[in-house]
Amino acid sequence: MKFLVINGSPRKQNTYNVIKQAKVNLNGDFEEINLIKENIPMCNGCFKCILESETECPHYDKIDPIIEKLHECDGLIIGSPVYAMNVTGLLKNFFDHTAYLYHRPEFFTKKALVVVTTAGAGHKKVAKYIDETLRHWGVNKVYKISFACGGNDSLDNDKVNKVSQKFAFDLISNKLHSPKFTDIIFYNVWRAMALSKDPIKADKEYWFNTGLVNHDFSPEVKLNIPKIVFAKIVFNVLKKAIK
C-alpha cells in the first residue's frame, strides 16, 4: 500500500510527530512531500487553471508532480499546524493552486487522514477546512486527528492510534462510502454548469470526456435510492436555473 504524506508545516514538531505516530499503525510505503522544500510560487490568481486548463497554470511544473503522486497513492496523509486560526501559508498556497479541482473533482476513490495540531485553539476549525477542501476534490472519506498540545510536546497517542487504525482498516476494506448530501449538491452544481449555454471550456471538456456528466455521482461510488432521487432532483433544478 502506498501512502503520500503532504506536510504543510515549515517545521517538524507537533504535527509532524503526530504523523509519525499515525504511520506506526499503517502498513505500506510512504512518500513525503514537505511543502517548505517544494518552493511553490504564490498563486497569482490568474484563473487559468479554472478557465483554460490546469496545464496552463504558470506553476504547473511544480503542482502537477504532486497531483500525479495523489493519483498514485492508496492513502493520503495531510497535516498542518494552526497558523492565525487557519492552515499554514504553505498549505493554503498549495490548495489555491488546486482550485480547479472544485470544478473538476477527480479523487473519488481516495481516502485521507488529516492531522492538525495547535498550541492554543482553532484545530477543529482548521481540520474541518481541510476536510471540506479534500471533499471538493472528490475524496471519498476523510479521517481527522486534531487537538491542542498546549504549547508543549505532549501528544495524545491514544487518540492518534485510534483514528489512524480506523483509517488503516478502511483502506484495507476497499469499501467506498456513500457521499454526503452536500457533496452530491456540489457535484451536480458543476455537472449542470457543464451543460449550460456558456460553460467554462475546461469544465465542459472534463465532464464530457470523463462521462461524469451522465452520472448522478461518480459511478465508482454507489448511492442508495434516497440519494439517487436527491441527486436527480438537485441536478434538474440546477440545470433549469443555470440555463
CA-CA gap between termini: 45 Å
Please state roughly what percent of the residues sit in beta strands, choosing from under 5%, 5-15%, 15-25%, 25-35%, 35-45% or over 45%. 5-15%
| Uncertain runs | none
Indicate the CATH class of the largest domain. Alpha Beta
* Helix share, percent: 40-55%
Overall average pLDDT: 95
**What would you give as the CATH superfamily of the largest domain?**
Flavodoxin domain
Query: What fold name goes in the CATH topology slot of the largest domain?
Result: Rossmann fold
H/E topology pattern = EHEHHHEHHEHEHHHH
CATH architecture of the largest domain: 3-Layer(aba) Sandwich
User: Main sheet?
Assistant: 5 strands, parallel
Number of helices: 11
Record field, number of beta strands: 5
The strands making up the biggest β-sheet line up spatially as 2-1-3-4-5
Basic shape: globular
Helix-strand makeup class: alpha/beta
Rg is: 18 Å
Number of domains: 2
Overall description:
The structure is a single chain. By secondary structure, the chain is of the alpha/beta class. The protein has 2 domains: 2-173, Flavodoxin domain (Rossmann fold, 3-Layer(aba) Sandwich), CATH 3.40.50; 181-242, no CATH class. It is built from 11 helices and 5 strands. Strand 4, helix 7 (123-136) and strand 5 form a beta-alpha-beta unit. It is globular and about 55 Å long. The termini are far apart.
